[in-house]
Amino acid sequence: MKYLFVICFLFQFYSTSANAQAYKYHTVKKGETVFSISQSYNIDEEDIYKYNPDAKEGIGINEKLVIPVEATRSENKAESNTQFTEHTVKKKETLYSLSKEYDVSVDDIKRYNKQLYSKELQMGETIRIPSGTAVASTNNTPVETQTISKETSVTKPQSNQITKTREHIVLPKETKYGIARKYGMTVKELESINPRVETLQPGMMIRVGVDVLEDEPVIITDDRFRFYEVKPKETIFSLTRRFGVSVDSLTQLNPALKNGLKFGMVLKVPEHPEGKDIEDDEVYTGMGEESNTKMDLSNSISNRSTKEIVLMLPYHLNKIEEDSIETYRNSILNERVVRISLDFHSGVLMAVDKAKSMGISTNLRVYDTKQNSSEVANIINANNFNEVDAVIGPLLQDPTEAVASRLESKNIPVINPLSNRSMRGYNNLFQSIPGEEYMKNAMLDFIAKNASGKNVVIVADGRAFKIKSEISNIIPGIRSVNPTNNYVSDQELKNALTTGSNIVILESDNINLVSSVTSALNRLARNHDITLLTTNKSNAFENDIVSNNHLGNLKLHYPSVDKEYDTDTTESFNEEYKERFNIEPNRYAIRGYDLTMDVLLRLASAGDLYESFEKYPGYTEYFESKFHYMPGTNGGFINDAIYILKLNKDLTINEANDL
C-alpha cells in the first residue's frame, strides 16, 4: 500500500513542479484590490481577470488568485521564435491528416490556432502550422490533470444542474471537451459557470463540477482517441455506427453512459484508423443532417449521355430447347429464383421507359448468370465492360462477389438488388438491401428517441439475450418479463405495466411465445395504453395462430426494408404495368423499378454513381423503397435507409413518426 502512496505522491509532485513556473497563487489580504495586486506583480489588471474571470465580480479575503509569471512570457517568447507555415484547409482534410503531412501533433496545431479547441476545422480556413523542430523544443510538459479539492458553493449558479463547484487549474493541451468529460459535465455547463472564459490558457483557474469520473484517466494526447460532444437527437446506437464501436466499448470508454446519454455530454471516442475526421465526414458517417433530407433527383438531371447498364440475373435460358418453350414456361413456375428474376426484370424495363420519358437514354444489356460464379467470369471475359456505368445484379451472394471482384479494377459499380447477407467489401460493391444489423439498429434508434417518459417492458426468450442486453443498456430502468416454457401469463405482464403509456418490446422467433404475449397484451389493452414493438418481425409474427387483429390493436411497430405499396398514388404505374404484362406488379417488379430508377437518376444528375452520393447526400425514395448508401465497415457501400412501420387497428400499415 505504501508503494502505491509513494507513486501517487511522486506523480503529483512531478505534475506540480513541471508547471511551477507557469503560475503562482496569491492569497488576497485585507485591503487588497485587483489593481494593487497587479501593481505588486508588475502585470496588467486584465492579466489577473484573464486567469481569474470571477474576480471581475469582486475578490474576498483569503481568496486564491492565479498569477501568471515568467512561464507565460516564456511561452510567448517560444511562440515568437517558432516558424510557421500558413495552410489553407482543403476538402476532407482533417487535423489528423495535417499532423501527418507536417509531422507535428494535433495538439501542436491547436496550440497555435486557439479556435480549434472549440470548433472543428473548416474548409477554406487558413491556419498556422508550426515547424516540427520548434514545437519539439517547447512540447515537454506533462498532460496529467491537477485538481484542487476545495469545494465552494456557487452564489449565482448559471445552470440548474451544477450547484457546487471545485477549482481546476488548466494545464497545457487541456481542452474544454477534456475537462468537461473529466468532471461529468457538458461543455455548455462548463461554460455557464465560467461565463467570461473564451479560450483556455495554461495556469488558468476555472470552476468545474465536483463529480470527478475516477473510472479512468483522461487521455488528452493520443492519436487513437478524440473528444466528441453529443448533438441533439443522437442516440447511443447512432454513435456506435458513427464511430464504428460496440455499445460495450463505448460504455467502457465513457463510464458516465451507464446513467444514460444526454445532449451535450462529452464522450471519448476512437479516431478513425485512416485519420478521417469522422464528425466532419458525412459521406463516411451517413449521420449528418443532410442524410435525413429527401432528394428528388428528377429535378437535377444534367448528364444526358446514354447510360450503359448491365443487368445480370439467373434466367437459366440453357434449359430452353428450340421446340419446348412451353415446357420452359411451365418449369420456371416451380423455380422461385427464376420467377423472381423475371419479375424484377419487368420492373427494370418499366424504369427504363420512364427514364426515357424524362430524357434519359439507356442501353440495357442483359446476361444470364445461370446462378453460377464461373458463368459470371465467362460473361465478363467474353464482353466489353469498359464503358459500363453500372451493373445491376446478380441476385445471389457468390455470383455478385464474383462480378464485383472482376470489375473492381475498372471501378464499375455493382449493385446487388435483393440479398441482405454480409458480403466481401469490394470498393465497387453496393448492397441495396440493409442487413439485419442495420434493421435492428434503426429500431433501437427509434426506441431510444421515443422511450422517454414511458414505461418500457421487454419480453425476450433465451435466444434473444443479446438484443435484450443492448436494449437494457440504452434504457435505464427498463422492466423485464421472463418467459417460462415459451409462455407469459396475463398477471406477469400486468405487474410490469403502469397506468400511463407503456411500450412492450417483444423479441422472439418462437410462435408459441409470440402468440401468448400478444394475446395477453390484447386483453390488457382494454385498461392499459400499450404499444408493441420488435426489432425483428420474424416469421413467428406472420404465423396464422398469431392474430393480426391483436397486433393491430397493439399498434405493432417494426423495421422494414420497404413500405406498404400504395395503389392509390401509383394508379397510373399499375395500369401501364398491367397493360404491358397483363398482370398486377408484385413486390419484386416494384423493387426492380425503384432500384433501376434510382441508378438512372443518379447517373443522370452527376458524372457517375460515386459522385452522386457526394453531390446529393440525402436519401432518395420511390414507390416502396428508399436509398441512402454509406461506406460499409469492411469496404463497399450499404443502403442504410430503413422504414419504421406501424400496423393500425384497421390493419393498414403506415410509417411511424413517433409514439
UniProtKB/TrEMBL annotation:
UniProt feature, compositional bias: Polar residues: 134-160
Residues in the signal sequence: 1-20
InterPro entries hit by this protein: Leu-bd (IPR028081), LysM (IPR018392), LysM_dom_sf (IPR036779), Peripla_BP_I (IPR028082)
Pfam families: LysM, Peripla_BP_6
GO molecular function: lytic endotransglycosylase activity
Annotated region (Disordered), positions in chain: 133-160
Record's keyword terms, sorted: Signal
Alphabetical list of CDD domains matching this protein: LysM (cd00118), PBP1_ABC_transporter_LIVBP-like (cd06268)
Residues of the LysM domain: 24-67, 85-129, 226-269
Family the UniProt entry places it in: Belongs to the leucine-binding protein family.
Protein name: ABC-type branched-chain amino acid transport system, substrate-binding protein
